Amino acid sequence: MRAAIRRSLASLLGAVTLGAAGLAGAAPAQAAVTDCPSGYFCAWTKENAQGTMLKTRTDMPTMGSYGTRYGSYINRTSSIACMYTSADYYPWDGYWSENPSVNGSWTSGSNTVMNSLKFVRTDRECSRNAYPDWWSETSPKAAGFGDLDGNRKADLLVRDEAGRLWFTPGDSTGRLVGAGGWNGMNALVRHGDFSRDGKEDVIAREASTGKLWLYPGTGTGGLGARKLLGSGGWNGMSRIAAVGDLSRDGRADLLAVEKSTGKLWLYPGTASGGLGARKLLGTGGWNGMNALAGPGDMNGDGRVDLIAREASTGKLWLYPGTTTGTLGARKLIGSGGWNAIETIIAVGDRSGDGRADLAAVTNENYVIDGFRGNPGWLITYNGLGTGGLGAGDRRDGEWWGLDGVF
Ligand SMILES: [Ca+2]
Ligand SMILES: [Ca+2]
Ligand SMILES: [Ca+2]
């Protein structure tokens, strides 16, 4: 779907940028362009900011008396402007988007048709919801994770490119649960209940401070006031993963790989909802793993496990939790190709058979029909209950233009 619309977009862009060569750029002494006030989108019926000037900062389902042919435009709003060939923001005849102007940059070219205009926060909202379409079946039993609203349907949190957080409950809908600022976090994980109120929580690492924050789940998909979980130094960890109760004391734990040593550490959850003294789980080499996920109990022995992707081979490994709260001998569950995955998501039981599953979003390396370059596809994998995964099921390619799914 994305490829199709991108192609039509490209042809439109071609028309505009071809004529714009040498014209667009930092505003020279073009009095007409500077007629467009800050905070507005302006378009002119002719090239080089000549002709009638349209000036708006609100959506326009039709262009009304301004007509539909434009030769130049500038976006001086703080939003992304979506310009559509058809009226009513109908995207499938073609559209293109214009980011807020940087240093007075503007675009001029041969006449192009615009029948409607809309302002959005993220590029994908020109043609679809800010959040992706997530569907899950109701599980016969509560997984204990992957279910923020406690209805036994695996749900997801999605961060968009504007730093907002969306809750997708598993019925194709989505709801805003974080109004902004989430792009200040450089790690987001969820798996289980850290605050010990029976509701699943989120842990986030703040990029600017290296602090670790606990966002207690409200039990409805939203998150409550955050609490400090780690006062600093967490940027020294290359990866963190919430895995559930690995130490087997009834409390959810956190795993982290130390950048400088490649060691894998367990940070046990405490009775007060904090993290206790860390314990060494892996003596080295864990920097060779470029993704970790806490899938729950994948091999059906009642203990939570760990999934890790090996960077050098693209293999996926399962590290089973043991009776003593450590990790046992690893087992190969993905023989290769996992480097074409951008995000491995521990979803809990998505398929509704009571077994923990896995989901993934592809990156640029993903191949479809022999052709590389297919990011943004959702692939789901049914857990077999033995530790292994069923064949990947390619769902839809609308998971692009996001900034994380967990
Ligand atoms: Ca749910
Ligand atoms: Ca297990
Ligand atoms: Ca399942």
Annotation keywords:
2 helices, mainly beta, 406 residues, 29 strands, FG-GAP, signal, 4-stranded antiparallel β-sheet
Describe this entry's structure for a reader.
With 406 residues, the chain is mainly β. Helices cover 6% and strands 36% of the residues. It has helices at 2-20, 31-34; strands spanning 41-46, 50-56, 69-75, 80-84, 95-98, 107-113, 116-120, 156-160, 165-168, 175-178, 185-190, 202-206, 212-215, 227-230, 237-244, 253-258, 264-267, 279-282, 289-296, 305-310, 315-319, 331-334, 341-348, 357-362, 367-368, 371-372, 378-381, 393-394, 402-405. The strands form 8 sheets. It has a 4-stranded antiparallel sheet. The chain has a 4-stranded antiparallel sheet with strand order 10-9-8-29, with no helix packed on it. A 4-stranded antiparallel sheet has the order 11-12-13-14, with no helix packed on it. The longest helix has 19 residues, at 2-20. Residues 1-30 have low confidence and may be disordered. The structure holds calcium ion (3 copies). One calcium ion (CA) is lined by residues 349-351, 353, 355, 357, 382-383. Pfam families: FG-GAP_3, Inhibitor_I36. Residues 1-31 form the signal peptide. This is ATP/GTP-binding protein. InterPro entries: FG-GAP, Integrin_alpha_N, TAT_signal. Keywords: Signal.
